[in-house]
Amino acid sequence: MSIRKLKLASKPGIAKSPTGVIGLDQITQGGLPKGRPTLLCGGAGCGKTVLAMEFLVRGATQFHEPGVFMAFEETDKELSANVASMGFDLPALCARKKLLVDHVRVERSEIEETGEYDLEGLFIRLESAINAVGAKRVVLDTIESLFSSFSNTNILRLSCAQNQGDLCNASRASLLHPPALSAVLPS
Prior knowledge:
Blueprint: E1 16-17, H1 22-27, E2 32-33, E3 37-39, H2 48-62, E4 67-71, H3 76-84, H4 90-95, E5 99-103, H5 120-133, E6 137-141, H6 143-147, H7 153-171, E7 174-177
Parallel strand pairs: 3-7, 4-5, 4-6, 6-7
Antiparallel strand pairs: 1-2
Helix pairs in contact: 5-7
């Protein structure tokens, strides 16, 4: 299947990161907002992770924008197997430093909340991954599973809101959060 190059009308406004999904890029007039977080919401199995992976893989292969996929549920091997049928070779992209897949294990039974906490450690890890490949696109999959591990989600919301802006500004990356609760972060 050949991929047609689209001429997307250049309109004044915010810069966009094309997704590589032709119809979506047309509807959004060029793609997702560059340097801003985008929330992707929907029920289980509707394709949020697939769209997020497509955003990263097409970004790396068609638009020369390396990416980071930070997963809180699926391992890199599971993700690779899931998208192989789409023709995506994640291990090859990772070997060429076009993509970095990082599985962060969050196990509720192993977490003990004591006092105030934030996500600084997680964001340091994410920043390291971004720097390792020079990422311009970042996916956190799933924010929902991260939030379900802690009882005080207000602190997590504040930490995410503060750190995502810093990451987007420092790396000029587009940040995609699939799947997420619409109340988690501002879209």
